[in-house]
């Protein structure tokens, strides 16, 4: 009896530890991810009660076309956000000049439960921060292209894909080029997106082609790394003339 109780307690401790690690993974701010400091100019754009917004500027070729990446709009998708932040600032021999806008939601972040979708208030907090602080920066920043990085729980026909919510757009054309030049990235346009009106759609209406990149949330990290490298290099070789 004592031995059985010991085993049950041990199992309970393991479960508690696993849950704690998952919470830490979700709540770790993007700005704590290691970046090669010699390759970046860092600026804090905003710091509010619901979260902060930062930017890493001038990654890659400072004389190249300017491209913006955005991460953190939906905070629970941060494994994919951290993948970009881990890889892009440490690459060399890039053709373009990249800025990474980081949204760090700190209020009502929420959690995934058994693969369920994200309906936390933190999702809206991230969208509000994107519209208030990131959109003006990109809209007035002489950018040729913008990419909003997200992830999904596998509810779509494709797990790793790019798309523009604006039909018949230049952004959509770029998205198809990216999909056609990569092995693991498809082009698929969902019927709707909650964050579209807060960043990607206004940017396209402003004349700046902007797309989404969607990665499968539960893919092994090694696959996320491969897919992110494919995305980065495909975008780096786009013709913006």
Summarize it.
Helix content is 37%, strand content 22%. The chain is α/β, with parallel strands linked by helices and 241 residues long.
Topology:
Blueprint: H1 2-27, E1 41-48, E2 51-60, E3 66-71, H2 78-87, E4 97-105, H3 121-139, E5 145-152, E6 161-163, H4 170-180, E7 186-187, H5 200-206, E8 210-216, H6 221-236
Parallel strand pairs: 3-4, 3-5, 5-8, 6-7
Antiparallel strand pairs: 1-2, 2-4, 6-8
Helix pairs in contact: 2-6
Task: Please supply descriptive tags for the structure shown above.
8 strands, 241 residues, alpha/beta, single chain, Aminopeptidase
Shape: globular
β-strand percent reads 15-25%
Number of helices: 6
Low-confidence stretches: 14-28, 31-39, 112-116
- Helix and strand succession? HEEEHEHEEHEHEH
Q: Label the structural class.
A: alpha/beta
N-end to C-end Cα span: 75 Å
Number of strands: 8
CATH class: Alpha Beta
Write down the CATH topology. Aminopeptidase
How many structurally independent domains?
Answer: 1
Largest sheet: 8 strands, mixed
Task: Record the strand order, biggest sheet.
Answer: 1-2-4-3-5-8-6-7
Q: Do you know the CATH architecture? A: 3-Layer(aba) Sandwich
